[in-house]
Design goal:
Largest sheet: 6 strands, parallel
Structural class: alpha/beta
Number of domains: 3
CATH class of the largest domain: Alpha Beta
Strand content: 15-25%
Bound molecules: iron/sulfur cluster
Radius of gyration: 23 Å
Number of strands: 19
Shape: globular
Number of helices: 14
Oligomer: single chain
């Protein structure tokens, strides 16, 4: 079924609003690809559209609020007659389902995380029978192998590669398994084939994403197969960097460490959310690891993969977190010298075991702990990244810097795309900025906490 030609004489135009994580972005890219095949045109400006498709996030309170605010923005445009229809997809749609139709009358359709492939049919129904209120929600979790339809939205040289969806862990603070289902890995051949297509299209850096990448394949093959997948991806001509996001400390293996050691295309970069470090907190979070296990793993990664950057996330203010727990975490951050640290103030989520725990902490305590932890990390970052000054390194350029002629912005291998600090590279006097997508050799002349400044090396 193709999109209707509307009164403006053009195929229907859909504005795609994407919120949340990179996995949601891939869902949006798939929906954009399906739309294009369905003879719809997609636009990023809702004012210039017939239907708004809001692909939402519901991970924690603040992201739910952001999603609802965007939906209400679209609702206002619809009341002004600027939009004919509103479709809500993604995790908020999966979580609240018909409540969204009941609470926001301007919403015409709600599409679950497992119904991405129904998007063309749903938008057609919204346009052909405007009064029909559509609830297209089923069991959580995307049909994981729709990648062939993707309209990749990132710059040509870098692309996300979703290897699995859902998660088999049951961390007590996390709503994701409820919204995305259990772990479902894509067949290795399908991932490699998609990576080949991306490489043929100019992709040089693959960003592997899942809820829990290190468990990749456990559901499909009875054992984790990330090592095998990484070796296969490293063999693809044109691919220069393979970056793994969202690993779990419990599911690292000797085989995986060997791949990071041996495969030069696998970035010396380990994204491993630790969430906390005291054993009482790790138990209450049901992280299935102890402090000693995580410390031993990080020590091994640092000794076996020289120059590896460690990226992690912590949650502070979790129910029952004592002053002593927090002091131990703060001390750990000061001592561990981690390269990239993010920190969430615990967000109480209905439907999670932690949300039912008694020992909830006041918001001001959570926020002050988050502030203290990020202040401590800022000092650490100054010394960690300060050590790069004077080195000549390879920088992948992501683009020019508006208003700074001759300067490009990019990343060293130890900096993730759109989630970490960046490296600015100034071309030799008078020359134009290094080309987007290129890797240039640069001498680092300054570090500013999380960002580096460099000059193109002769
Ligand atoms: S590993 Fe834990 S935090 Fe991560 S998606 Fe799974 S349940 Fe959520």
């Amino acid at each position: 079924m193709t999109g209707p030609i509307l009164s403006h004489g053009q195929p229907a135009r859909v504005a795609l609003v994407t919120l949340g994580c990179a996995k949601n972005l891939v869902d949006s890219e798939i929906m954009a690809g399906l739309m294009a095949k369905g003879n719809f045109t997609t636009t990023s400006d809702p004012r210039d559209a017939d239907v708004a498709l809001v692909n939402t996030c519901a991970f924690i309170g603040p992201s739910q609020k952001e999603s609802i605010d965007r939906i209400l923005e679209m609702a206002a445009l619809k009341r002004e007659g600027k939009l004919r229809g509103i479709v809500v997809a993604g995790c908020l749609a999966q979580r609240y389902q018909s409540d969204l139709l009941n609470e926001i009358p301007e919403v015409d359709a709600v599409v679950g995380t497992g119904q991405v492939d129904a998007i063309v049919r749903v938008v057609n129904r919204v346009l052909r029978s405007p009064s029909s209120r559509i609830l297209e929600v089923g069991p959580p979790g995307t049909a994981v192998d729709l990648a062939a339809h993707r309209a990749v939205s990132t710059p040509r040289h870098v692309a996300y590669l979703r290897i699995a969806d859902g998660c088999d862990f049951r961390c007590t603070f996390c709503i994701i398994p409820t919204l995305r289902g259990d772990l479902r890995s894509r067949p290795l051949e399908s991932v490699v084939e998609e990576a080949r297509r991306l490489a043929d299209g100019g992709t040089r850096e693959l960003l592997l994403i899942a809820q829990d990448s290190t468990s990749y394949g456990a559901d499909l093959y009875g054992e984790a197969r990330l090592p095998q997948l990484l070796r296969a991806l490293a063999r693809i001509p044109g691919i220069e960097w393979v970056r793994v996001h969202y690993t779990h400390p419990k599911t690292w293996s000797e085989a995986l460490i060997q791949v990071f050691e041996e495969e030069s295309k696998v970035c010396k970069y380990v994204d491993i959310p630790l969430q906390h470090v005291t054993d009482p907190m790790l138990r209450r979070m049901r992280r299935e690891v102890r402090r000693v296990d995580m410390e031993r793993l990080i020590e091994t990664l640092r000794s076996r993969i020289p120059g590896v950057a460690i990226r992690t996330h912590f949650i502070v203010g979790f129910p029952g977190e004592t002053e002593e727990d927090f002091a131990e975490l703060l001390q750990y951050v000061r001592e561990a010298q981690l390269d990239h640290v993010g920190c969430f103030a615990y967000s109480r989520e209905d439907g999670t075991p932690a949300g039912r725990m008694k020992e909830q902490l006041p918001e001001r305590v959570k926020l002050s702990r988050r502030q203290a932890l990020m202040a401590a990390q800022k000092k650490v970052a100054a010394s960690v990244w300060g050590r790069w000054v004077g080195r000549t390194v390879s920088v992948r350029i992501d683009g020019p810097v508006p208003g700074r002629p001759g300067v490009g912005v990019g990343r060293v291998e130890q900096q993730g795309y759109e989630v970490d600090g960046v490296t600015y590279v100034r071309a030799a006097d008078g020359a134009s900025a290094p080309a987007t997508g290129e890797r240039v050799s640069a001498r680092i002349v300054r570090a500013r906490h999380y960002d580096l400044d460099g000059e193109v090396a002769a």
